[in-house]
Task: structure prediction
Amino acid sequence: MDIIQIPTHLIDEDKDQPRYQFDEEALQELMNSIEELGLLSPIKVRTMNSGRYTIIYGNRRYKACTALKLPTIPCIVSNVTDEMEIYLEQIAENLTRQGFSPIEEAEAFNKLLTDSKFSSSIKYLSSKLGKPEAYIKNKLDLLKFSQTVRSLIVYGTEIRKDKLTEDQLMPLKDLSMEYRDSLALIMAQDEMPVPDVKRIARLFKDKEITDSTKGKLLFKTGPQLLETWSTFEHNKKERAKSAEPKEEVIKEKPEPKELSLDLRSAFRPELHNELEDGNEAREGTTTPAISLGALIQSVERSPDEQSTEQDSESFIESMLNLLFSTLPAPSPLSPKDLPILEGVEREQFVQDVDTLIEDLEKHLAEWRSVKDMLNKRSD
Result:
């Protein structure tokens, strides 16, 4: 393999070669090295009919030499004319060099697969370049993103502001088009690490969240999206936990005492129907509709009917026990416990909460009234 010195002005860059991104800082370092030690690795060129030479690989070294105004460049001259072979050699050489970005790889692979002068296959590329088919397919997936996103893709794994690595984009590649690019730009802006990008991607893949809600989430920053994911996962786990069958042994509780027909008839007539409704409610396992205050007042109006009073108090005790057995123990709630709801679902939830508060306030007022009347009787 002969190395010859070729005048710099006779060498042309290959505008169709796979690599076109060159880091200015790295190029300056190469220039400093060439200036101090000379060009240690020659570039490879091919002869053209015009008597000039076109670079096969070594564009970055060529740029450094021309910037230093070197009169000649050491070159290896190739007589290969097959375009497919030349392009594969360019890719193979760049794959061994630092700085060959994932998007440059993707575009090079895609060109070999779609350009009519190549018409290759993934299997063929895999065998020629020594790369697994999955490796090539992953690179091709980067082409799903818009040109704006592609322009931010850089070599390496370092997370940088307004730049994107291949690892950051892989979790987003299978999302719908309306979310994919927007999320990629958010990830670049907020320098989101790969594990967090994966979590946010899972949020947008979840079918429980409506498309309308997902669209609104795109107005959040990266950290805010991560917080939304955390809240959503917490709520999902809590719902799953509450849906699990409980294997606790339930102790049998004594049945509430029912008032006999004779006893109910002893009450004032205007309370008879209310008591009927209350018993029917107990039979349906719902809270009795009877007014407790009215019940005690009726007992106070009939002090001579001692047996009725005792049974009435037993009935109130039964109702109290019923409430104790059906009402859950209070537990603290935090913002993380709130469900993610939008539109009609949110309005219905708020309405249900209002109804619950109203019913609980009525119960509270009723039992306070009972307590007051009992205190008066004891005075």
